Amino acid sequence: MGLGENEANVIWDTLIIGAGPAGLSAALFTRMRRMSTLLLDTAVAGGQLASLYPKKPVHDYPSYTYVMGEDLGKNFVDQANHMGAQIHEREHVTMIRRDEEQNLIRVTSTKAEYEARSVIVATGGGAFEPRKINKPGEVELKGKGLFYGMPDVEASKGKRILVIGGGDSALESALSVKDVADVTLIHMLDKWQGMDTYVEEIKESKIKPMLETETVEIRGDGKVQMVVVKNKKTEETQELPIDLVSINIGFLMDTKIIRSWGLDLEGNQIKVDNIMNTNIKGVLSCGDIATYPGKYKLLITACSEGAAAANTAYIYVKAPKKFTVGELYAAPKEEGDTQPKASETPA
Ligand SMILES: Cc1cc2nc3c(=O)[nH]c(=O)nc-3n(C[C@H](O)[C@H](O)[C@H](O)COP(=O)(O)OP(=O)(O)OC[C@H]3O[C@@H](n4cnc5c(N)ncnc54)[C@H](O)[C@@H]3O)c2cc1C
């Protein structure tokens, strides 16, 4: 959704980089305060929920017994849209720069230049790409039974699935289909690297775990049919008849882009204070990309940090005489809404 060329004339109250849970929560709160709000996302809105684990059930998001990643991601996006935030997908931000003279932030993307009174960096894990196993058959059979991340439970019914990996994501992937499919789980190392509770659950299930086992080749004529695996200790190879391969060996996160933005970093993360300020005036950060002592990278913390960043941006941009409890919970009002409307924006 967007206003097109007319947006060039707008100085946004806040421009949010990254439309994941943190950025979308921030947008909800900036729009509650009737600030004009633009979100730019290099991929699709919804962040990791939409891109990395759409088919995984999330069990630790309050108010849901569980909710599928894609449904929760869509709810975040729907709510931000409902509040009137502008969202541009497939628009990668390459640079931000504070203009001291004009007291605003200039944002450069692959498509346009923007001006904003405040910027919220919510780039999460960055622009992510699943890590590859780099074995024969992987490229040819991608999308033909071979995929990265969580299996689709419905599509897995009655299938023979090989899950590759030994961390939380791999263990979760295997467990998610244990009741509907014939699951084999292989890991290169001699120990699982995921949570003990997952390891216990796997031991008690019908999943066939194979440690110290690597993939040699994935075979199939137009679709996955067989995977050759090798025990690293005995060097023995086995041909496993398989219908689906789920690769879960992590993601390559491209967080390098923020290195040239002049932000104080700790490793690959942006240092923030307790109200999400960075070292640059008018630039806030929240979600997985932000760090402070005691940080947890979770959906719920991404949301709360998004709310905090939005309120800090509001106080910084609008300088209300006081920020009352009433205002904190205020329902959105049309009055004072600065969001540009297509019909009203100068041509
Ligand atoms: C497999 C897996 C399972 C998980 N399960 C759970 C769970 O059950 N419960 C839980 O609480 N947490 C879970 N998490 C963690 C949770 O998903 C993250 O903490 C959360 O997504 C962080 O939200 P975010 O908005 O900070 O970042 P993200 O969700 O990473 O969103 C950031 C957005 O920024 C965009 N972006 C990046 N760089 C740019 C750029 N330069 N320009 C424009 N856009 C950019 C990206 O495309 C992305 O959409 C899981 C994570 C993974 C990988």
Shape: elongated
| Secondary structure tally, helices | 9
**What percentage of amino acids are in beta strands?**
25-35%
Full CATH superfamily name of the largest domain: FAD/NAD(P)-binding domain
Bound molecules: flavin-adenine dinucleotide
Q: Determine the structural class based on helices, strands and strand pairing.
A: alpha/beta
The CATH topology of the largest domain is what? FAD/NAD(P)-binding domain
Return residue spans where pLDDT drops below 50 for at least 5 consecutive residues: 1-5, 343-347
The portion of residues assigned to helices is 10-25%
Topology, number of strands: 22
Mean pLDDT: 91
Return Rg in Å. Answer: 23 Å
Distance between the termini: 18 Å
Examine the secondary-structure arrangement and name the CATH architecture of the largest domain: 3-Layer(bba) Sandwich
Summarize the structure.
By secondary structure, this protein is of the alpha/beta class.
Describe the protein:
The protein is an alpha/beta fold and 347 residues long. It folds into 2 domains: 4-128 and 251-328, 3-Layer(bba) Sandwich (FAD/NAD(P)-binding domain), CATH 3.50.50; 132-247, FAD/NAD(P)-binding domain (3-Layer(bba) Sandwich). The chain has 9 helices and 22 strands. Strands 1, 2, 5, 6, 7, 8 and 21 form a 7-stranded mixed beta sheet that branches. The protein has a 5-stranded parallel beta sheet with strand order 10-17-11-12-13, with helices on one face. Strands 14-15-16 form a 3-stranded antiparallel beta sheet, with no helix packed on it. A hairpin with a 4-residue loop joins strand 6 (93-99) and strand 7. It is elongated. The protein binds flavin-adenine dinucleotide. Residues 17-23, 40-43, 47-48, 52-53, 56, 58, 60, 92-93, 122-127, 169, 257, 287-288, 297-300, 302 line the site of flavin-adenine dinucleotide (FAD).
